[in-house]
Amino acid sequence: MTAEPDGPQGRLRRFATIWSRAVYQVTSTSLTRVEFEEQLLPLAGRLSAALLARTFDAEEGRAVGAALVSAHCTDPEALSRSLDCVDAYLVLYCGEDGPQEDLRARSARLQHAMSAGYAAALRDRTLAEQEAIAWAAQSARSAVAEALHDSEARFRAVFEGAAIGIGIADLDGNILQINGALQRMFGGSEQTVRGRRVTDWTHPDDAPQVWRLYEELVRGDREHYHVEKAFYRPDGTVLWTNLTVSLLRDADGRPQYQLALMEDTTERRLLNLRLRYEATHDALTGLPNRTLFFERLEKALSAGEGQRFGLCYLDLDGFKTINDSLGHAAGDRLLVEVADRLQSCATAPGEMVARLGGDEFVALTTGPDTEREVDELAARIMNAMIAPVSVDGRELTVRGSIGIVEGPAGERGPAEVLRSADITMYRAKSAGGNRFELADPEADLRAITRHGLTTALPAALDRSEFFIEYQPLVHLGDGSVRGAEALVRWLHPQHGVLGPDRFIPLAEHTGLIVPLGRWVLEQSVRQARDWQEQFGGHPAGGPLRINVNLSPCQLTHPGLVQDTVDILERAGLEPEALCLEVTESALIGADDDLLKPLRRLAEMGVDIALDDFGTGYSNLANLRRLPVSILKLDRSFTQGMQQFPADPVDLKIVEGIVSLAHGLNLTVTVEGVETGAQAEQLRILGCDTAQGWYYARPGPPERLHDLALADAT
Length: 713
Prior knowledge:
It holds the Pfam family EAL. Residues 151-221 form the PAS domain. By secondary structure, this protein is α/β, with parallel strands linked by helices. The strands form 4 sheets. It has an 8-stranded mixed beta barrel, surrounded by 4 helices. The protein has a 5-stranded antiparallel β-sheet with strand order 2-1-5-4-3, sandwiched between helices. Helix 15 links the parallel strand 11 and strand 12. The longest helix is centred in the first third of the chain and has 50 residues, at 100-149.
């Protein structure tokens, strides 16, 4: 007994030994097994080097696959055994010191590259053989014609000794002679084959031109033709061939016989079918993959008039949590179970299920009545996922969101349909998940526009596309201008002026709100300083105040306090002239860490306003611990005061809030004042300041200058 090999070279030798033993029995070679192992050893070395290389090179895998063909490993079983051997032993013997998961992923890619190289080399070899067959056909035709006229013995030598199948028939299609190679291809006796007529050898997979070419040849209008053709053997199995048929003429040039030369391509076709299947099906679930799905979808969308399609785009809810908590192996088992359930839902003609990748699946139905069928298909999918999935002893609840697109064929392309389904699926997720939604062109357009705005946001700030409008804050007692709220706008090159409701949520989502908010604060503080230099403060004394909104993201940014201090110092504006507005919803349940920056700013003299007060369902008792000095009452409480008489319920609510605020030494600002009656009623109730279209719409800073001068006169 020999000892186990030590060191990299020993392990490489062991891998080559295992490989040679697995493949040798199905290899057409005159070498001994040991000699064959020596032939595989450098190929094993190339695979090992590709596995451990710093940069992956698929060309090495393709070169090894091609080398197998050169080594006469042309039996499809040789490739299958080679791939199995690489999958099982390459990482074990050649990569034991590396990260196993990465090495196994690279090993899988090497296997795919080997398959591609093997198929390409086999194809090149086939083309070379076809050229040889064509030459043999010409030689055989000349030899047969000469033999028929000159030497029967010479013809027999060529006919019987040929490695390809040869058959001779008369122009009526009666088979006259076949050689041994052709007889072996069909697996029957010579009499069984010769007892058939050429026209009897039809097959459902015959190309439309096969029998047209045959008729032209026997009429003498064609000298030869070459096609790929299938035949039924006597036992019912199918023989695939490369078939070349030539016309033989007599000494006077009259058509007399037809000569057929056949190359058996059955095994090569089966290998190509296997490679095609692997290229168009998901390795984990066995479902059609993205490639095959797009082929089917494109075919469905190009169907004739009256045909429709329905598409369900499914994404599992919370799948990332399962992967992160239970591991990818558990996630894979869940995906396999989901795939099986989906497959059972799409069994009718015209229906298919595919996996696009990750936890995304699609189900397609086609036909004239998909408006009803796609809804039923979506309902079946949702019902199929109700039952929990058992993974590693745990019962996992499966939920999914589905986006449905349905419509007539011929109006949209595959990419547009899939994009609409994807957008609709995310709309279902946003609505809570575990449901399906129908595509809405207007919702699609909004989502596409929103994505375009999100993409354009960073460059917009660099290109100075943002500007600020100011809405005056008016004292309800004497009508004087006490300051203004800064409201940012986006002058978009295509969409025109956009309000903050169109882009602030996007800026929040992308994190751009922090630099954008800093820019707004800097511009607003500088503008407030300019106002002071132009006309001083308001009549009641003190500076004109500038109100700037803070987003939740800015509240949690560690540089908020320092940025504010730096901006005020650079502009030369006292902190009392700045008010930062924070929405009530952002402070619901806020802990001391979140409130600490606001407290520091308040201690400096910066006013903190609680914006949209009354919409966040907050505990009023929390007002005592919040570092706020101003309540901004939401406009929903004052809309009932626009007409006379005012809504008594609204009056009571506002009166109570004002009383509460003043009891806590807070001032009250009201938003959305649009009529004089509304302003008068709010003044009577004791509100301090207001803003709204009744006084002025948001506008350029010069407008506030004009209003302030008018108040002064």
